[in-house]
Design brief:
Jelly Rolls; four-stranded antiparallel sheet; 5 helices; 37% helix; single chain; globular; 153 residues; alpha+beta; 8 strands
Length: 153
């Protein structure tokens, strides 16, 4: 079901990432996002691409793929509604660390680095809430990765 931009605020309220946001925060943040549809099988970005945005999955499932030195690709994670992907693009100026592909039809909200920089200038409090949420997500993923390594040691 395709949604229009007027629904972005309602979509944000549905995502756990924004649980700590009040109505004013949601209203302030919504205009910085773009709503997009992604068809099943489409690659969102490739490992090695320059990152310029992050996305929030509203609907559907995406897989994270890494390429080994022998060029074999391995699915290392799968994320569904509520997940954010590509957080590092807002934090650093490095290439994408993985390939991301839609395994089903997906609906996503996109926050570009350019729009995030404007948000930082116009509403630093909301931008800080976004950064705290991204840091929390990255931290949780790092902890999960450490747990996987602990299993193979």
């Amino acid at each position: 079901m395709e949604r229009t931009k007027q629904n972005v605020m309602n979509l944000l309220r549905e995502l756990p990432f924004f649980d700590s946001f009040d109505a004013d925060d949601i209203k302030a943040f919504a205009p910085y996002l773009s709503l997009r549809q992604v068809e099943e099988g489409n690659t969102i970005f490739h490992e090695g691409d320059m990152g310029s945005y992050l996305l929030f999955i509203v609907e559907g499932v995406m897989e994270i793929i890494l390429t080994a030195e022998n060029r074999q690709q391995k699915i290392v994670a799968t994320y569904g509604p509520g997940a954010s992907i590509g957080e590092m693009a807002l934090i650093d100026e490095y290439e994408r660390s993985a390939t991301v592909r839609a395994t089903t039809h997906c609906e996503i909200l996109i926050l570009t680095k350019t729009k995030f920089d404007v948000l930082q200038d116009e509403n630093p409090r909301v931008a800080m809430k976004i950064m705290k949420g991204l840091a929390r997500n990255i931290s949780l993923r790092l902890r999960a990765t450490q747990g996987r390594f602990r299993d193979i040691i």
